[in-house]
């Protein structure tokens, strides 16, 4: 009898942990659905409101905001800014065209004063009488220097060529040029007068001569002398024709 009681107590004692373990397992299993239900009920965060844009003015307008989104004062400011920008572009184009025109007429064109200056220098260097008067040792006149008027100040080396141009009553264009030449023995001035008749496209020489102090002029071109007739009378020009 005693043995049965002892065996029964041992069986009861050994079965208690199993029951506890089962109870714990059951409790853990039941808690999982509760956790899932709690996470599914969370409310999503609301999106933050966009910050208000700054007002568009002619000074800060970069064109990113479309025209339809602008207010009436902002549209007025953008229109004023674009008008100002177009004005700057037009002024820039006008200045560029003016500079191009000056470069063409003064340097590139065959009728520019620089082009005629170079032709005049070549004529002086190529004339035997001019080379002899200036004392050139080189038969090509390479040792004869040509330059413009002397200037003072910082740009003393930049010696501009003295020139003037005008149109007379008959519509003829005149170009008058003067420059200096320096040879090994003497220095002088070269005077050039060109005329473009109204009915022609090219300039013609009226005169081209070298003048050295103490010597007679050396004429390389002289239209007035060519206009003297056989009877010694000088011809004149009228209605586009030369009359003797």
Automatic annotation (TrEMBL):
It is a single-pass membrane protein. GO terms for biological process: protein import into mitochondrial matrix. Pfam families: TIM21. Keywords: Membrane, Mitochondrion, Mitochondrion inner membrane, Protein transport, Transit peptide, Translocation, Transmembrane, Transmembrane helix, Transport. It comes from the Eukaryota. Residues 1-62 are annotated as: Disordered. Its main location: mitochondrion. The keyword Nucleus does not apply. The chain crosses the membrane at residues 84-104. GO terms for cellular component: TIM23 mitochondrial import inner membrane translocase complex. It is found in: Mitochondrion inner membrane. Residues 20-43 have a biased composition (Low complexity). PANTHER family: MITOCHONDRIAL IMPORT INNER MEMBRANE TRANSLOCASE SUBUNIT TIM21. Belongs to the TIM21 family. Essential component of the TIM23 complex, a complex that mediates the translocation of transit peptide-containing proteins across the mitochondrial inner membrane. Required to keep the TOM and the TIM23 complexes in close contact. At some point, it is released from the TOM23 complex to allow protein translocation into the mitochondrial matrix. This is Mitochondrial import inner membrane translocase subunit Tim21. It comes from Schizothecium vesticola. The lineage of its organism: Eukaryota, Fungi, Dikarya, Ascomycota, Pezizomycotina.
